[in-house]
Amino acid sequence: MNTPVTELLGIDFPLLAFSHCRDVVAAVTNAGGFGVLGAAGLTPEVLDAELCWIDGHVAGRPYGADVLVPERTAALRGGDLDALVPEGHRRFVGELLDRHGLPSGEVRLGSIRLGDPDTTAGLLDVAFSHPIALVANALGPPPEHLVAQAGRRGVPVAALVGSRYHAERQLAAGVDLLVAQGGEAGGHTGEIPTMVLVPEVVAAAAGRVPVLAAGGIVTGRQMAAAMALGADGAWTGSVWLTTEEAETAPATKAKMLAAGSGDTVRSRGRTGKPARQLRSGWTDAWDDPAGPGALPMPLQSMLAEPALDRVDTAAAGGHEGARELATYFVGQGVGLLDSVRPARRVVAEMMEDFAAAVARLAELDDA
Fold first, then answer.
1. At a CB cut-off of 8 Å and minimum separation 6, what does 106 contact?
2. Which residue, 3, 53, 201, 367, is the most exposed by fewest CB within 10 angstroms?
3. d(C-alpha 124, C-alpha 118), whole Å
4. Burial code of 96-124, b = ≥16 C-beta within 10 A, e = fewer?
């Protein structure tokens, strides 16, 4: 297939796969798509090791990296971040774990600091030291230094957008690829649904840069529908969370396979910004008006991740209270995920499903 995205990235099929799992990234890239490794939550040292592994498993085929660079965390730079997490919020987490049969003891803070500017700078340096063919950014226009670094290395910059206004700001910042991510998507999203958002962003781009559709896309026929709306390909995430290779905790993966499309919620309870994830006792507690409310990024992730790591470990051992709390980022397309498959098979099935959908439309045209 030939689209502006396949030409830009040098791939066979315009299917991009965002994943925090290096095995998924390599499998999708080797199957003719384009894997994108999510670097949020990694240290520069760990990212370097992950990218070295990918380099050794894709035989020079192109892949990308996604580095979270939010606009509004600069005010937290250089301070003692631990001291900014209120004691009341730590106590709230301890009481929540206690109620679910997981006595917490002292609530510790984690080293995962999503959006911390100093960590982000190190991640970008590492990413650009590898042969990445794309760098993606979310939560606002990329900073000038990111665009400049990418330009010097000939690496296209992609940006995730949730509205036409966001798209126009990204174009002004000089991005090379827009990802129109509807509210159905997992992770950080806006509220506009994919069906409405894609043609708005395509109109804003006006042919200046390619546009990928994202949000609820887990089948080839959905990808075909998005391209009928004007997109040049698809950006996917949730569909890889139930693959054999996925990083998803076992108990959470089982919850995803049993979930319907209505079993997700946009909550600030994991990162501090609205992020769609499985609804659980954790999200309910943080979204309760009687609770303390989520902290801003990166403070909320520092508080949440150690507790949720403990939840995942206990849930894997069959602890029912932990299973009730377990959650992870996933979109509304989860309702269409009902089996565990290798990532390469998912790519093949999406290609076949896409071709069948296009053939069906051709038949309608001939009728």
1. none
2. 367
3. 10
4. bbeebebebeebebbebbbbbbebbebbb
Token pair recorded at residue 346: 């998912």
Q: How deeply is 129 buried, as exposed, middle or buried, from its count of CB atoms within 10 A (0-12, 13-18, 19+)?
A: middle
Residues 240 and 17 sit within 8 Å (Cβ to Cβ) = yes
pTM as predicted: 0.92
What the chain holds in terms of domains, given with CATH numbers, is 1-70+114-239 (3.20.20.70)
Name the β-bridge partners of 19. 37
- Whether the Cβ atoms of residue 227 and residue 324 lie closer than 8 Å to each other: no
Q: Give the CA distances from residue 299 to residues 70, 241, 296, in Å, rounded to whole numbers and listed in that order.
A: 13, 26, 6
Q: Which residue has the tokens 């150690």?
A: 306
Question: For residues 165 and 192, what is the distance between their CA atoms, to the nearest angstrom?
Answer: 12
Cα-flanking dihedrals φ and ψ of residue 54, to 5°? -60, -45
